[in-house]
Structure to design on (84 residues):
């Protein structure tokens, strides 16, 4: 005997915070499904999310590493001031 359960999607709002959490993989499973469903079925939300993805990528690409002399200076300071 098989038991079939019909699951109907809940009507929920998708906030900008939800999109940010989703973008950085910080949502719980149920919220992930809800946000992905909203992105897939709402063109306006999809455009907002794609803009957020592009901005996130641009921020990641713009990050630069400090020069070696700066890193060495920080490490030297840390060695001098670290408690023993």
């Amino acid at each position: 005997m098989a038991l079939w359960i019909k699951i109907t999607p809940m009507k929920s709002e998708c906030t900008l915070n939800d999109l940010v959490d989703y973008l950085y993989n910080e949502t719980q499973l149920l919220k992930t499904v809800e946000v992905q469903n909203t992105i897939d079925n709402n063109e306006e939300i999809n455009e907002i999310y794609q803009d957020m993805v592009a901005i996130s990528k641009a921020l990641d690409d713009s990050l630069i590493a400090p020069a070696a002399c700066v890193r060495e200076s920080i490490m030297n300071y840390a060695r001098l001031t670290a408690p023993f």
User: Anything to note?
Assistant: The chain has a mean pLDDT of 85. The radius of gyration is 22 Å. Residues 43-62 form the longest helix (20 residues).
